[in-house]
C-alpha cells in the first residue's frame, strides 16, 4: 500500500514550510488503519471517480473546486497575512479581461491526475468520463450602450435593435472553457506550496452567450487561447497563498488543501471571434469589452480547495478496500 507522497519531493518542501505543525493530521500520512471506512469517509474518494487510472503507475489523482470568497483556516492566520502584506485580504474569484469582469460565483471543478516522468517532471492527465474543467456559465456584464453600433453592419444593427432595444435581452453569461486538450495544462505542486513560480497554467477561452452575440462568441480559441499562468505567489499587483489549511483524512490517504488562492495579473487576452452572424458583431463587442487587452490589464483570482491522493489509494478507496 503506497501512502500519499504528495508528488515526491514536494512533501519535503511542505515539511520545510511547517505544514506538519499546522496540521496534526499529517502525522498519520504514513499509517494504515485496519478499520474499514464509514460511508461518509468513502464519499471523500468519490472526488476521484474520474481519475485517469490507466495513465501509469506513478500517478496522483487530483480534484479541485473553486469558491467565490477567499478562505482562511483561522482569524489569526488571516490577520498575520494582512499585517505582512499591508492590506486587507479580500480577493474574490473572478476573471477580468479588458473592460469585462466575470465574478466566478458558481464553483468550477477541475478533475484529472498528475503523472510523473522519469526526470520527476509533473504532467497533467485529463479526466476520464467527465470534463477536465467543468464549464459553468457565470453572470457577466450585460449588453448596453457601450456597444458601438456604428461598427455593426445593417443586418447586425437590425438584430441588435430587436434583441437589445425591443426584447430587452441584455443579460450575458460567460463560461471559462479549456482551450485544446487537457494535456496542455501545466502543473507544478512544488511551486504551489512554495508560493513562487507557476503552479497551474491553463489555456482557456471565454464563451459569451446572449441571443444577440449567438452561440459561438468566444474571447480566445483553441488556436489562440488565453494562457493564464496561476501562482500562489506574486503576480503584478496580486498576491496569492498556498493551502495553509492543509489536512489529511482519517488514514492519510487523501490530502486536502483548503485555502488556496491562485492569481495572475500578467496574461494577455485576444479579441472575440464568432459573435453575431458569422462574426459580424466582433468589432462592436471588442469595442464594448476593451479587447484585445495587453498583459497587465487583465487579472484572474481563483480561491478554492485541492484534493490529492495516489492513484493506488484512490482506486482502492473507490472499491471500498481501505
What does this structure look like?
This protein is of the alpha+beta class and 322 residues long. It has one domain. It contains 8 helices and 17 strands. It has helices at residues 10-16, 19-22, 39-45, 75-85, 154-166, 189-194, 282-289, 311-318; strands at 59-67, 94-97, 100-103, 109-116, 122-126, 138-140, 172-178, 186-187, 200-210, 214-219, 226-230, 234-235, 238-239, 247-248, 255-264, 272-273, 299-310. Strands 1, 2, 3, 4, 5, 14, 15 and 17 form an 8-stranded antiparallel beta sheet that branches. Strands 6, 7, 8, 9, 10, 11 and 16 form a 7-stranded antiparallel beta sheet that branches. A two-stranded antiparallel ribbon has the order 12-13. Strand 12 and strand 13 form a beta hairpin. It is globular. The chain starts with 9 loop residues before the first helix and ends with a helix.
Would you count the extended β strands for me? 17
Radius of gyration: 22 Å
From the N-terminal CA to the C-terminal CA, the straight-line distance is: 10 Å
- Binned, the helix content reads 10-25%
How many domains would you count in the coordinates? Answer: 1
H/E series: HHHEHEEEEEHEEHEEEEEEEEHEH
Approximate shape = globular
Contiguous runs where pLDDT drops below 50 for at least 5 residues? 1-35
Structural class: alpha+beta
Main beta-sheet strand count, sense and barrel state? 8 strands, antiparallel
The overall pLDDT average reads 84
Percentage beta strand: 25-35%
**Number of discrete helical segments:** 8
Amino acid at each position: 500500500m503506497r501512502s500519499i507522497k504528495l508528488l515526491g519531493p514536494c512533501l519535503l518542501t511542505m515539511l520545510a514550510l511547517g505544514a506538519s505543525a499546522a496540521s496534526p493530521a499529517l502525522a498519520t500520512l504514513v499509517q494504515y488503519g485496519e478499520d474499514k471506512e464509514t460511508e461518509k469517509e468513502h464519499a471523500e474518494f468519490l472526488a476521484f471517480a474520474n481519475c485517469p487510472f490507466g495513465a501509469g503507475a506513478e500517478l496522483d489523482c487530483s480534484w479541485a473546486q473553486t469558491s467565490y470568497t477567499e478562505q482562511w483556516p483561522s482569524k489569526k492566520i488571516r490577520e498575520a497575512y494582512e499585517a505582512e502584506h499591508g492590506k486587507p485580504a479580500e480577493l474574490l474569484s473572478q476573471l477580468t479581461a479588458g473592460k469585462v469582469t466575470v465574478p466566478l460565483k458558481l464553483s468550477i471543478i477541475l478533475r484529472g491526475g498528475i503523472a510523473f516522468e522519469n526526470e520527476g517532471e509533473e504532467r497533467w492527465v485529463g479526466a476520464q468520463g467527465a470534463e477536465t474543467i467543468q464549464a459553468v456559465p457565470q453572470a457577466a456584464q450585460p449588453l448596453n450602450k457601450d456597444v458601438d453600433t456604428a461598427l455593426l453592419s445593417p443586418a447586425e444593427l437590425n438584430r441588435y435593435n430587436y434583441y437589445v432595444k425591443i426584447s430587452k435581452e441584455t443579460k450575458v453569461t460567460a463560461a471559462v472553457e479549456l482551450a485544446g486538450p487537457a494535456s496542455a495544462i501545466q502543473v507544478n505542486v512544488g511551486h504551489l506550496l512554495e508560493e513562487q513560480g507557476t503552479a497551474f497554467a491553463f489555456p482557456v477561452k471565454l464563451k459569451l452567450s446572449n441571443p444577440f452575440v449567438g452561440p459561438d462568441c468566444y474571447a480566445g480559441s483553441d488556436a489562440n487561447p488565453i494562457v493564464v499562468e496561476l501562482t500562489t505567489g506574486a503576480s503584478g499587483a496580486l498576491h496569492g497563498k498556498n493551502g495553509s489549511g492543509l489536512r489529511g483524512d482519517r488514514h492519510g490517504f487523501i490530502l486536502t488543501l483548503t485555502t488556496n488562492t491562485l492569481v495572475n495579473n500578467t496574461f494577455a487576452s485576444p479579441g472575440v471571434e464568432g459573435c453575431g452572424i458569422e462574426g459580424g458583431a466582433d468589432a462592436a463587442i471588442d469595442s464594448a469589452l476593451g479587447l484585445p487587452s495587453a498583459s497587465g490589464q487583465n487579472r484572474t483570482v481563483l480561491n478554492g480547495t485541492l484534493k490529492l491522493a495516489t492513484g493506488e489509494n484512490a482506486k482502492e478507496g473507490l472499491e471500498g478496500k481501505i
